[in-house]
Amino acid sequence: MFFEFIVFIISLGVLIWGADVLVAQSEKIALHFGISEYVIGATLVALGTSLPEMAASITASLNNKPALAVSNVIGSNILNITLVLATVFMVSKKEIKPNRDFFAKDSSWALFPVLIFAVMASQNQFDRFDGLLLAFLMVAYIMFLIRSEPDALAIEAEDNQRDFRWNKTLPMLFLGFILVIFGADYTVDSASKIAKALGVSEWIIGIIMVSLGTSMPELVVSIVASLKGKADMAIGNIIGSNMANITVVLGGAALVNGLKLDMNNYIFDIGVMVVATFMLVFITANRMYSKSAAISLFVLLALFLRHTLAVLGE
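Below the sequence we write its predicted structure tokens.
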């Protein structure tokens, strides 16, 4: 048990380092191509930080553990909003004033997958056809992002072009991804072993331990971006990651092996994910990027954790 705690701490350190490298190189790419920081956060960084969730859920699906695969997605989406986004608001050194109108352009892409997930969950299964539909939804989201940025390929300024070097940026970007992915992987693995040693059920491992571990990249990347004054990238990473969790992570798990389980047993967790998403929409609609909004999200997180701990104690 002690050894697993040591591995957990070291893995978090690797994760933090990788996230810092990832944000720095993503910013350079955005400046070089004239791409907005939001699009970088919602696509490149979001997909990169969702790879641990994808690996965990697809592996669980292949091992015929649908509860672990689905709970990982639900837990990650809940934590991304109630923990990651709330933490971004709390640690921000100055008032967050994103350049992008998230409500007008992006709220629907946070809400649509969750509502579609709820409809699919009523069938008590996610088959390969469902997985294909979810994958198409991610394609539509990426197409929307590209079309919403008409100046995405604007000619870069001379200073940015002169300072930018692909032979330096690409290796560092790759290193950042590797550190984040492996750091998250070992974080999840060690946390899961600790949980199993304590006799925790498969669903609880997925909804808390695995989802917490796989949400670490989003948490670290978003906090680092926020501290550097890159609010658009931080918020974009969260919205994009939640989109990727349902469409790519769950969709991928369903494509490799159909997922069948009684979702009626998990109505509370699904409900919390839906409520958290609606709170995200409300926050963007009213531009409530503040500590008061963070406290509201933390309250929902506390209710979610209390329920989970109550189930654990049964």
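The chain has one domain: 37-150+199-313.
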